[in-house]
Automatic annotation (TrEMBL):
Keywords: Signal. It comes from the Bacteria. Residues 1-42 form the signal peptide. NCBIfam families: YD_repeat_2x (TIGR01643). This is RHS repeat protein. Residues 225-303 form the DUF6531 domain. The keyword Membrane does not apply.
């Protein structure tokens, strides 16, 4: 193995992994502690290239009035048989319905206008609804662990006025926000506690709502549009080309990062700035006494020897993943207890998930990944051209997804039904240096412009919009004396101006202040030395505070309306070895969780 630092290492890439942990740990204090949104698995469907209908999801709240911010996304079954956004109905992705009480969402005019010739499915708490047109008669699997395919024939689910309850356990495409309480599975209320909040569960249903009267202040966002990370000026894009049945891990997705250093000689098998979700690599740099690990997301993080523990390596204070040196290679363990085995050359051999399922990786003599095999023997086979670029992925059903390039840059993806998705780019010159392959447009499978982006003179992403300028967001940046971004001004699709103040948190720019200009109200948030969210305020000055087990970087308590007579504190204890809650205690109620050896509830 070469003793050199991989060219793709950068602080921006590490920010991706930190963002992932922040997305898990921070909402645990607002989501798990308050009954909030859990992990989402990809939803699959059976009838490719077919309109399904619409999904309406609570994405924020509840506010003090008990209302949630509902958004709507038209959905379809994609060429890869994944539930995705559908632009054909004329609604933008995540169209804002408004702040509505759950008890009133069914009578909302937007939903009423979409019910004709359709079936409506919702959860007990009315925070998630799916409107399925009668012409969609295939199956949908919501992707939650243990979920089966739901056959949506008209015979099974005829068009009717009444809604169908709890058919889907989680959103299919449009996910809950981090503060939205879910209907938790198999969590009965203690018999001595009378339930006084939330909604009733008839006949002792499996899904028990854990509502609270008022949610915490929502953490300040760092992205806008489709999506642009305005804390760093990066355009990010994730494309799903193939997804197997939920939970198997046998999927193929691509990630684009406009600030990825994977360009030119350092480009990966998908060309400049693109990476796929199985592109893992571990590099040991002896001269630095560091291990660099590239993740499937494109993030690259480093590890140093753990003091006093032989062959153990640790990351920065905000990194929970660990690395161990073995006699015949390396072992990487993630926060969710996925174990990855690498050979002495740093090539990934196997990923074993917490539930015991696994993926095996086969490489050719040159080190290129040629096959991915899941725990039941299904395979994805990868093909390359003479220059080493990925040209095909063959699925277990022998369908072929093709990848085309123009001047070495990914320009098209062709699906088994011969539809294709096209990509357009622009180069920028910054301080005399060309910054290549900045994604500016996606042409969808219907040969229609789906989305566009633009960049400023510093090559920072400055515009995001969908067809006909729908969902248009513009961003301008402020910079400090070292040319680092320290503020961002966002004008959203409603022409509202938002100003964000950014600060360095463990080497990554994070939002610490937000001001909306129509009423000049501001709010703030604060992080601790390990990158955990310590407190966040809303625009009325109400403060939500958090405390953590800093040894494991897990949230222990959340106090809503801290420092006021209305303050409520929710505490969580954690499983001794799993990063899963053992109990959640809030005023008037305590819930305990029991798991098997694999962490299944």
């Amino acid at each position: 193995m070469q003793d050199k630092k991989p060219a793709v290492v950068s602080i921006q890439h590490k920010a991706q992994l930190r963002a992932r942990h922040f997305a898990l740990l921070r909402p645990l204090a607002a989501a798990l502690l308050l009954g909030g949104a859990g992990q989402a698995w990809g939803a699959t469907c059976s009838v490719a290239n077919t309109l399904i209908g619409s999904e309406i999801t609570a994405t924020d709240g509840p506010n003090t009035a008990g209302e949630f911010l509902y958004k709507l996304s038209p959905i379809r079954c994609s060429a890869g048989k994944v539930v995705v956004y559908d632009s054909s109905l004329g609604f933008p992705d995540a169209f804002e319905v408004g702040w509505v009480l759950p008890s009133q969402i069914e009578s909302n005019g937007t939903l009423q206008g979409m019910r004709y010739n359709s079936r409506v499915f919702k959860n007990q708490c009315s925070t998630h609804l799916v409107v399925v047109h009668k012409n969609y008669t295939g199956t949908i699997n919501d992707g939650a662990p243990g979920s089966a395919n739901v056959s949506l024939t008209v015979a099974a689910y005829p068009v009717r006025t009444a809604v169908y309850l709890d058919v889907f356990k989680q959103p299919l495409y449009l996910q809950h926000g981090p503060t939205v309480p879910p209907c938790m599975p198999n969590v009965p209320f203690p018999p001595q506690v009378k339930e006084t909040t939330g909604c009733d569960v008839p006949n002792g249903g499996d899904w028990t709502p854990l509502f609270t009267a008022a949610g915490p202040a929502t953490p300040i966002r760092s992205q806008c549009g489709n999506p642009i990370a305005f804390n760093s000026g990066r355009k990010l894009q994730t494309e799903v080309d193939y997804a197997q049945a939920a939970g198997t891990g046998l999927s193929f997705t691509r990630s684009y990062d406009s600030q990825s250093s994977g360009v030119g000689a350092d480009a990966g098998v998908l060309g400049n700035r693109w990476q796929h979700n199985h592109d893992f690599r571990l590099v040991f740099v002896a001269a630095q006494s560091k291990v660099y690990v590239r993740r499937g997301s494109g993030a690259v993080i480093h590890f140093v020897p753990k003091p006093g523990v032989a062959d153990q390596w640790q990351g920065d204070a905000d990194i929970v993943d660990t690395v161990k040196k073995l006699a015949d290679g390396w072992e990487y363990t993630t926060a969710d207890r996925t174990v990855e085995r690498y050979n002495t050359d740093g090539r990934l051999l196997r990923r074993t998930f917490r539930n015991g399922q696994f993926l095996d990786y086969t490489n050719d003599a040159t080190g290129r990944l040629t096959k991915i095999t899941d725990y039941v023997g299904r395979t994805l086979t990868l093909g390359y051209n003479a220059t080493g670029q990925l040209t095909s992925v063959t699925t277990p059903s022998n369908h072929v997804i093709g990848y085309g390039y123009t001047a070495g840059v990914l320009s098209s993806v062709t699906y088994p039904d011969n539809t294709s998705r096209q990509y357009r780019y622009v180069d920028r010159t910054v301080a005399g240096t060309t910054v290549p392959t900045l994604l500016t447009e996606i042409i969808d499978e219907s040969a229609i412009s789906y989305a566009k982006w633009d960049y400023d003179a510093k090559a920072a992403a400055s515009l995001s919009e969908h067809a006909a300028s729908v969902d248009r967001n513009t961003i301008t940046y402020g910079r400090d004396a070292t040319d680092k971004i320290n503020s961002a001004t966002v004008i959203d699709p409603l022409a509202t101006t938002w100003v964000y103040t950014l600060a360095d948190v463990l080497g990554v720019r994070r939002p610490v202040g937000e001001t909306r200009q129509f009423d000049n109200k501001s709010r703030s948030q604060l992080f601790d030395a390990q990158g955990n969210l310590v407190n966040v305020s809303d625009f009325n000055g109400t403060l939500t505070t958090y405390q953590y087990d800093l040894t494991r970087n897990l949230p222990l308590s959340a106090s809503v309306a801290a420092g006021t007579p209305q303050a409520r504190t929710i505490t969580t204890t954690w499983h001794s070895t799993l990063r899963l809650p053992a109990s959640i205690t809030e005023p008037g109620r305590s819930t305990t969780f029991t798991y098997d050896a694999n962490g299944n509830l």
